[in-house]
Every structure is written in C-alpha cells, then in structure tokens.
Amino acid sequence: MLKKSVYPLFFIPLFISGQALANEAPIKVKVFVGSMFEIGQNTGDKAGEFQYWYEKYFKNSQPITVKGAASPVFCNDNGVCGSVLGMGKVASSSSVQAILLNPQFDMSQTYFMINGVAGTPPSRGTIGDVSWGSWVIDYDLGHRWAPAEGLHDGQTFMPRKGYENIRSYQLNPTLVSWAMKVTGQTKLLDSEGAQKYRQRYPDDNARRAPKVLTGTHMTGDTFFHGPGMSKEAQYIAKLYGADDYLVTEMEIAAITQVIARTQGTTQRVFSLRGSVNFDQGNPNETTLEHLDPAPGQTAGGFKETVENIATVGGEMTDYIVSHWDTWQNGVPALK
Fold this sequence. Notes:
Blueprint lengths: L1 H22 L3 E2 L2 E5 L15 H8 L14 E3 L4 E5 L4 H12 L4 E2 L4 E10 L9 E9 L3 E3 L12 E3 L8 E3 L2 H11 L8 H7 L5 H4 L4 E8 L7 H13 L5 E5 L2 H12 L5 E10 L8 H5 L10 H21 L1 H4 L8
Parallel strand pairs: 1-5, 2-4, 2-6, 6-13, 7-11, 11-12
Antiparallel strand pairs: 3-4, 7-10, 7-13, 8-9
InterPro entries: Nucleoside_phosphorylase_sf (IPR035994), Pur_nuclsid_perm (IPR009486)
Pfam family, one: NUP
Keywords: Signal
C-alpha cells in the first residue's frame, strides 16, 4: 500500500508539467535583439550594450533559459526578444545557434538586430557614430606573415581558397536603405569628453559630431589597432568588393554565417554598431600609447554611444513591429 500511495504523488506532477511544456506554442519572434556584453546587471547600474534595450523592451519580461546560450532570452508581448550573446566569434555565434534551434521560439520570420560597440578609422568615423553594416567581412580567413618576410600588394595578407562563401556577406541593400530612411536623421547624444578627444585627430570625419551612416563592418577576434592594420582592413574590404571599411568589431560575420545556415537566408540581418574608439592613435602617439592610455586620456562617450545604439536600433525595431503586416513576409520595396 505504501508503494501505491507514493508512486502517483511523485510522478503525476512531472508528467503534467512535461505535457504542458510540449503543448505550449513557440514564441513568434518578430525582432531578435542580440548584444554582446553587459557590464553588470541588466538595469540599475552602469550600462553595457544590452541595458538600454532591456529597460525599453524587457523590464517586465521573465528570463527564458536556453541550453547552450550565454545568457537567458527575454521576450515581450509584441514579439521582440533579446539576449546577451557573449563576446567574440565563438561565444556569440554559438549562443545564436542555440537560440535559433530552440523549439521555444519561432524565428521563421524574424529580423535580427545584432548590435554592439566598435572601433572606427578616424578618416571615416568618429566617437558616438552609429552605423548600419552594408557588408560584413571576416578579417581572419586568410594568410598573414611578418612584414619583414615580404609584402603582397603592399600588405601582409592573402585570402585562402575555400572560404569564398563565408568570408564576406553583403547584407540586404533594401533593408539597409530602410534603416537609413527610418533612422538616418536621428539626433545622437554626444559628450564633452568625446568632443575634446576628437580634436587630437586632424581628420575632418574624426572631428565632426556623431551621425548615422553605413559601411563595411569587419569582424576579427583580435582588437587590431594602428594605421597599418586599418589599411589592411580597408585592403581586405576592397579585395572582396565591399564598401569602405567603417567599423571593427568581433562577432557579426560569425553570427551571419550561423543565421545563413539555420535560416537559409541573410536577408533579415541588421548589423548595428556604435563607435567608442578610433582604430589607431593620433599622429602624435604610438599604437602602444593609444592602446594603453594615461589616466584621463581615454576617448569618452561610451555611455552616450551605447544609448545611441539602442535609440537608433529601437526606432527600426518599433517601425518593423508597428508595420508587421507589410514586413512579416519579407522586406518591403522601398518607395
């Protein structure tokens, strides 16, 4: 009798719980927001890449644990979901794959808002800029050697055969054009510290106020710095037939490859980056001095830039969600 009374009490609740989970419909995701890191908590402290998104979209959402993802996923009632993916190619792309393959989510019509901070060459961008990637390129898929061992087209890089289909992706030009139409005139925040720091550089683009623009986003697992590496990034961009190199970051090419494999398309991918540093020092400092600045000699503008990213990306996210009838089946023609 004792065994019969214990058996149903122990097993029935588990059985019902499993059935409930199995029968629950997946969350229909309209826009997925992927950031790379958060400094502390998702709200209430110094903001990293995800905090402003969290406070706008997910403050009342419950975390959804996904096996294999770096952090929980949050979803609101309007079909916007988001997560902190982890920094670098492996951490971020493995998180995206785990989320995409998880049956709790229906991402068959999802737009991917992949965003974070970045560096920019002073000849083309400045601190506080927000840019939409027109191309994403993997900086690492090739051969490199020491300059003393000879140059190839004036560079120490040569692409390796076999990577042609994954080393670069042109993101949907119509989607990028829509992003500029919706957000191109957005007023961006700036800081006094960034304004002073810009004046160290002679370039007109480095000295100007921040704005929204487009260009090639270059993905590398190393934080490459210096005019030589910057020229190499531009060389690779032009070698692959892409737009001018505008941003150096660590994730989007790998994430785009995962999306291409699992979704069969990259037509709904956004790469959104805000520039928090220059990819090289000014003419009066060495690359090492730029990498290891004296106290009080950093660029400034980080807080304003991460807020700019969420502001610009949020405008596009809200536009898609509020016009879902015309966006759910694909990117509308731009009129």
